[in-house]
Amino acid sequence: MFPIWATGIVFAAVYAQMSTMFVEQGMMMDTSIGSFTFPPASLLSFDVISVIFWVPIYDRVIVPIARKFTGKERGFSELQRMGIGLFLSVLCMSTAALVEINRLQLARELGLVDKEVAVPLSILWQIPQCFLLGAAEIFICIGQLEFFYDQSPDAMRSLCSALALLTSSLGNYLSSFILTMVTYLTTRGGKAGWIPDNLNEGHLDYFFLLLAGLSLFNMLVYIVCAKKYKSKKAS
């Protein structure tokens, strides 16, 4: 079970971007919506809205359709659900990278590269990446809890269920480690680096693409581990 568990750490590192790099990205975008100024940190609310949106969609629409094809009462097995979530995390990071590429291109066109000011690109463009991350959360987190509860030895169910929550803290440490290494490697020689104070002269898109690539590799490792895993009958 540990290889399956370990792949959840990378997703937790991706999920940590919701309250870190997504906020940094939003601070350099147009936060005005009419007469209202949208605080970038409030993006976390879109994650909650996404979860509220996807839970009934999953239970009422996706599961009944999947049940017809798989014959499983839950629509998907725990391993299939987590695999779908990992795929959505790749899409999330890729979408975030595309938004940043467009933001940086607009900054260059308007001559704002050397200025630490927001680019006139609406912060609402971040909604798709937040919704994808919320959907990934639904598939992975619930799938993890079901997997560790059903597949763990009967006497270790509480302990193994706690392992699913441990991935969250380890994922935050991994996110910090990746950010530290990226900053160290990209600022050598006096360079601004990928994530400088002024994001207009940086390459936050490269960082998101790095996480997308890491998530893709993590998903491929997960697929290999999931195929080799032999499920036990839940008691």
From TrEMBL:
Q: Which GO terms describe its cellular component?
A: membrane
Single GO term (MF): transmembrane transporter activity
The record, for InterPro entries, names: MFS_trans_sf, POT_fam
Question: Localized where?
Answer: Membrane
Q: Does the keyword Transmembrane helix apply?
A: yes
Q: Which UniProt keywords apply?
A: Membrane, Transmembrane, Transmembrane helix
Q: Which Gene3D superfamilies match?
A: MFS general substrate transporter like domains
Please verify whether the record's keywords include Transmembrane helix: yes
Where mainly located? membrane
Query: Which residue spans traverse the membrane?
Result: 40-58, 79-99, 119-142, 163-186, 206-225
Tell me what topology the record assigns in the membrane.
Multi-pass membrane protein
Membership in a protein family: Belongs to the major facilitator superfamily. Proton-dependent oligopeptide transporter (POT/PTR) (TC 2.A.17) family.
Instruction: List the protein's name.
Output: Uncharacterized protein
